[in-house]
Amino acid sequence: MLMINILAGLLILTSLLVIAAKTVKNAAALYALQSLVLVSLFVYLAGEMNAHSLYMWSVSAFITKVVVVPAILIYATKKIDESGVPQGMNTAWFIPITALIVVICYMAAAQLEVPLAEHLKPALSVSLSHFLLGLLCIVSQRNILKQVLGYCLMENGSHLTLALLASDAPELVEIGIATDAFFAVIIMVVLVNKIYRTLNTLDAKQLTELKG
């Protein structure tokens, strides 16, 4: 139980580091680290909840989230110059905003009537927080490739929520979710490269040609 809550806390910390990272390459590496924490959390949850399907979830999550998706994002940066893109929101605001999100989600999770052990509700609150932190990354960053990482954070949060609330779901469900996320990232990276080749910028505020 203690290890599960520690790993859940590490998910929040790594999310904050991903959002605050100055380059997409560093953010992708931190996302890989976070996904490794998520994989470890799946393994501990499998033992705690006696859900053997979560072991298979951890394997597929390791392949897609720890290895493949970060590799795609890092590869995408090789042909893109992101040095001229402003950082967006001041990073000093991320800590109080993150704290507020965690507190609100913890209070919300405590009120939920779900078939979940009481000591696992902190992990559920983290999964809900993760979704909102991904949204924070999307709205606070001007670098559109960093916004893709915001989607990845949201997907990690929804993945953990599913593991907690539907741990007995077939492995096929997990494979479907992982595959959807994998192809979504590929499509978004292709679109980002197309935008960069056309407009020579990754700054979301400079994409005026996309406005109606």
Give the gist of this structure.
With 212 residues, the protein is mostly helical. Helix content is 75%, strand content 0%.
Polypeptide structure, described:
This protein is mostly helical. The chain has one domain (2-204). It contains seven helices and no strands. Helix 1 (2-20) packs antiparallel against helix 2 (24-48), helix 1 (2-20) runs parallel beside helix 5 and helix 2 (24-48) packs antiparallel against helix 3 (53-77). It is globular and about 50 Å long. It starts with a helix and ends in a 13-residue tail after the last helix. Its main location: membrane. Pfam families: Oxidored_q2.
Poorly predicted residue ranges: none
Q: Could you tell me the radius of gyration in angstroms? A: 17 Å
Overall shape = globular
**What's the pLDDT, averaged over the residues?**
83
- Counting DSSP E segments of at least 2 residues, the number of strands comes to 0
How helix-rich are the residues, as a percent range?
over 70%
Structural class: mainly alpha
Q: Which sheet architecture does the biggest sheet show? A: none
Distance between the termini: 51 Å
Elements, N to C (H/E): HHHHHHH
Helical segment count? 7
The fraction of residues in strands falls at: under 5%
Count of discrete structural domains: 1
GO cellular component, one term: plasma membrane
Main location: membrane
Keywords: Cell membrane, Membrane, Transmembrane, Transmembrane helix
Organism: Mesocricetibacter intestinalis
